[in-house]
Task: inverse folding
């Protein structure tokens, strides 16, 4: 399984006063089982990009291939694509509208054409995977806390058994514990099910800790693409486009400048800790 | 009395069934005492649902206390005739920017607040330009706010309140959707308002790094203030904070981990500069 973007461009409001080219010749290959982070300044095109990956938005020019097939072809099943590439939106609370949490999560599979039984089974499994407490299943979704709403929205997408899970800033507004719980949940699904994960985030620290590959967007274009340690080496360039390296990376550079022989590409607290402790052995 | 003072403040959300009988009562703010001096930079931390927004909405008289009293510049927010003054004193930036965009052009949206306050036109434009510049959105002044990205909308909302130049600004997670640079810009804009104009700031956030420069921190859990103090005092209690579903800044966490592993580091390290200095000291002693 792979997703390929070839020279994809997208413009909002073409020919109007607020015309905005949000994607400019984006070329990318996403392989099976990858855990990818997408970072970029606000308005850099992250949300626009990921909505192209599941066919929700249609490229103005360029091609998108899913498993080798051009998704813009007449007979390509784009409805099915949206179930295979599941997307949790930036404000998932806006997506909750059914009378109970359980019904909300059933919505996807029923829409896929599964009967009530199968949809229910899938909903149960998805809610369990997403860590929603059982006592909440038949409550209305509106009274939930921010973190719980986020979990229900993730369950709603998981119920469609996607091969690729895309999450647009899933931890924005969550308390630190809730943030760690959601990220651990996602990392667990990647480990256990080999699911391809694409995580959009504004937290350099979270991205450094969890993902294997970072795609950096700047002004509608791919600016950098590589492993966290490689990408955050370019922290000075990242700062110019509104981003930065994780705090610990700056600390390590500072220590190096003070004459301490530490691993100055460390990007996580754990890496930094190990490297600093080595100095004192 | 400080610019904001709360005494045994309680707020209850009351849910009723179809017949109007009380179905459930949610005590969202539970006997909170606050005393904020004019010019202070206050941060409020707390888990999701701990009552931060409910508290904030009372500061601006959007919600009226169920019990206890809240004074804004000495005015009891429970009295109807005080509401106008309270709102003029305490400007509010909400958690979700979509709910606070009014006009169809960015600059008009930002100018709406000062216009309502009767600020002269020339002064309005000056303020609009200044506040849009300080949140990095000047080049979008003629755009439609609805067509902006999430982070861009939030910056416009902040510019809107800044342009009203209230004595006190309450910001409810203003940076939740911003990129690192936007977060830094917004925060330094708010710090500058606080330093240069003496505007009192009450910042609600889930980013622990944003609290290290505060004059005072309140930590909420289940509607109650469970910890309060200086940043150094609060963030040296790593385990206690974790019990309240919170965290510490990354430099503090690393210092804490290194200390646990045996390095002689002091408590209360908040920034990477402090940590680097302390580590250098350790290292010099070690290699001697
Ligand atoms: N519906 C729309 N109509 C017109 N322009 C839009 C629309 N949605 C987004 N844009 C513009 O397209 C650009 C890319 O927006 P996008 O939402 O993809 O950014 P983003 O990287 O997801 O930002 P954020 O981090 O703030 O969510 C921005 O300049 C934005 O103003
Ligand atoms: N309109 C409402 N009706 C009923 N209960 C509410 C309402 N708004 C909030 N609550 C409840 O009051 C409590 C406090 O909510 P509040 O929004 O003040 O929390 P918060 O600390 O701002 O959380 P977050 O960090 O998620 O924004 C929660 O239990 C919440 O479910
Ligand atoms: Mg976005
Ligand atoms: Mg809130």
Result:
């Amino acid at each position: 399984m792979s997703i390929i973007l070839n020279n994809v461009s997208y413009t909002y409001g073409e020919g109007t006063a607020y015309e905005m080219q949000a994607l400019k010749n984006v070329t990318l290959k996403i392989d099976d089982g990858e855990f990818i982070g997408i970072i970029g300044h606000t308005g850099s095109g992250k949300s626009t990009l990921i909505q192209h990956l599941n066919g929700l938005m249609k490229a103005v020019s360029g091609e998108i291939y899913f498993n080798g097939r051009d998704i813009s072809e007449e007979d390509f099943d784009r409805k099915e694509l949206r179930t295979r590439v599941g997307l949790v939106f930036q404000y998932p609370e806006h997506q909750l509208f059914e009378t109970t949490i359980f019904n909300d999560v059933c919505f996807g599979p029923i829409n896929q054409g599964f009967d009530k039984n199968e949809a229910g089974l899938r909903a149960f499994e998805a809610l369990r995977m997403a860590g929603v407490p059982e006592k909440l299943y038949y409550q209305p979704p509106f009274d939930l806390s921010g973190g719980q709403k986020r979990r229900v929205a993730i369950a709603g997408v998981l119920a469609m058994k996607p091969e690729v899970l895309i999450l647009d800033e899933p931890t924005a507004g969550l308390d630190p514990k809730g943030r760690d719980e959601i990220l651990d949940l996602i990392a667990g699904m990647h480990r256990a099910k080999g699911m391809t994960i694409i995580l959009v985030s504004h937290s350099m620290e979270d991205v450094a800790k969890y993902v294997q590959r970072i795609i950096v967007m700047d002004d509608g274009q791919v600016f950098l693409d590589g492993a966290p340690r490689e990408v955050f080496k370019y922290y000075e360039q990242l700062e110019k486009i509104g981003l930065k390296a994780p705090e610990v990376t700056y600390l390590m550079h500072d220590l190096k400048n003070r004459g301490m022989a530490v691993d100055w590409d460390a990007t996580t607290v754990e890496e930094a800790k190990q490297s600093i402790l080595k100095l004192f052995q | 009395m400080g610019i904001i003072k709360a005494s045994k403040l309680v707020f209850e959300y009351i849910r009723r069934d179809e017949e109007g009988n009380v179905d459930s009562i949610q005590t969202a703010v539970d006997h909170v005492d606050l005393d904020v001096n004019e010019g202070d930079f206050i941060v409020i931390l707390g888990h999701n649902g701990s009552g931060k927004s409910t508290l904030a909405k009372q500061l601006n008289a959007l919600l009226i206390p169920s019990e206890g009293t809240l004074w804004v510049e000495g005015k009891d927010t429970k009295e109807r005739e005080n509401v106008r003054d309270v709102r003029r004193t305490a400007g509010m930036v909400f958690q979700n920017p979509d709910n606070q965009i009014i006009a169809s052009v960015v600059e008009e949206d930002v100018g709406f607040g000062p216009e309502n306050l009767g600020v002269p036109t020339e002064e309005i434009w000056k303020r609009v330009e200044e506040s849009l510049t300080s949140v990095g959105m000047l080049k979008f002044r003629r755009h439609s706010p609805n067509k902006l990205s999430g982070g861009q909308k939030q910056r416009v909302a902040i510019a809107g309140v800044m342009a009203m130049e209230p004595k006190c600004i309450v910001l409810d997670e203003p940076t939740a959707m911003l990129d690192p640079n936007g977060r830094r810009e917004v925060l330094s804009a708010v710090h500058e308002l606080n330093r240069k104009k003496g505007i009192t700031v009450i910042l609600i956030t889930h980013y622990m790094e944003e609290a290290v420069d505060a004059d005072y921190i309140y930590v909420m859990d289940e509607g109650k203030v469970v910890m309060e103090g200086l940043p150094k005092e609060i963030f040296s209690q790593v385990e206690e904070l974790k019990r309240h579903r919170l965290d510490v800044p990354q430099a503090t966490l690393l210092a804490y981990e290194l200390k646990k592993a045996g390095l002689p580091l002091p408590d209360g390290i908040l920034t990477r500069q402090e940590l680097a200095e302390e580590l250098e000291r350790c290292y010099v002693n070690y290699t001697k």
Notes: Strands of chain A lie at 2-12, 20-31, 35-40, 61-66, 69-70, 85-88, 164-168, 196-200, 213-218, 221-226. Residues 171 and 179 of chain A are 5 Å apart (CA to CA). The first helix of chain A runs from residue 46 to 53.
